[in-house]
Amino acid sequence: MRPGQMLSYDYTVAKLFMFSTILFGIVGMLIGVIIAFQMAYPDLNYIAGEYSTFGRLRPLHTNGVVFGFLLSGIFSTWYYIGQRVLKVSMSESPFLMFIGKLHFWLYMILIAAAVVSLWAGVSTAKEYAELEWPLDIGVVLVWVLWGISIFGLIGIRREKTLYISIWYYIATFLGVAMLYLFNNMEVPTRLISGHGSWLHSVSMYAGSNDALVQWWYGHNAVAFIFTVAIIAQIYYFLPKESGQPIFSYKLSLFSFWGLMFIYLWAGGHHLIYTTVPDWMQTMGSIFSVVLILPSWGSAINILLTMKGEWVQLRENPLIKFMILASTFYMFSTLEGPILSIKSVNALAHYTDWIPGHVHDGALGWIGFMIMAAMYHMTPRFFKREIYSKSIMEAQFWIQTTGIVLYFASMWIAGITQGMMWRATDQYGNLLYSFIDTVVVLIPYYWIRAIGGLLYLIGFFMFAYNIYKSMSAPTISAEPKNASPMGGRLNVEVSNV
Question: Which residues are annotated as a binding site?
Answer without folding.
Answer: 61, 219, 269-270, 357, 359
